[in-house]
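User: Before I run my own analysis I want an independent prediction to cross-check against. Here's the chain; please return only the structure tokens and, at the end, one sentence I can use as a sanity check.
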Amino acid sequence: MNVKDILVDLGYSNIIEGVKDYRMRPIYRDSDNNTVLSVKKDSGRFIDFSKGISGSIEDLIQLSLNLKDVEEVKKWISQKNFSIETREEVKPKLKENKIYNKEMLLKLKKDHSYWVNRNISEEIIAEFDGGVADTGKMAGRYVFPIFNNQDQIVGFSGRDILNRTEVPKWKHIGNKSSWCFPAKKTIKEIKQSKSVIIVESVGDCLSLYQAGIKNVLVSFGLEISNSIINLMLKLDVNNIHICFNNDSEKNNAGNLAAEKAFDKIAKFFDYKQIHINLPDKKDFGEMNTEEILEWKKKI
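Assistant: Structure tokens:
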């Protein structure tokens, strides 16, 4: 079976060839995203990231041609002299995320002074359900719970508030590659604006939130996870702003990572939809609200 021949015969065009799949715009519905439909090269299995539908190559044929049943699909395949071999696909084992008891939040001391001293209002910081940990792995940190789309806690991100030089500034517990934080709060703004701003840390997110900018997602480091890419595909965003730290006066880590992130996202979105917009200072935490709003005007 030549999957690409079948796709072309179905009427798909501008097919983008990846390592293991083909990417294209669906012909069975309206879309302006040229990579939202993925079809595996070997098996022909497809997934429409925006609609969350998937299936076999036969299912895609039926969907694309609006055929009423599987018999019509078989007839079309026969007429085209395509030979499709059905085989069982070996699926990788999925890593299940640990779910944490919400009662753990009761152990966090509701002391928001660290962030208030960094010009984040107590009203905003309280929205994120965090607090200071006095014991355990996160002792001496302000801890933010990470929720999934079912309102379950799947991890924690903690910021050191004791200015210790021997520990990392941020510490994470859980599978951060699966996190889409704080989508629970910002998904409405992302949908409405059709755009998303990706920042490195929760602190950057809070600074933007303080300035009234809420279409934000946090990468928790210098890589864009597949979970974030899948969410952006599902929401069918038009503009993606990569806003990692501006390390031009140090080691250029954020600058170089932004370019790497651009290349990764460009495999799924048109490059014209992706923008690198680093903060004017090292990070958004070093900028006041007026400076952030001026930055927003420029982008």
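Sanity check: Residues 86-92 have pLDDT under 50 and may be disordered.
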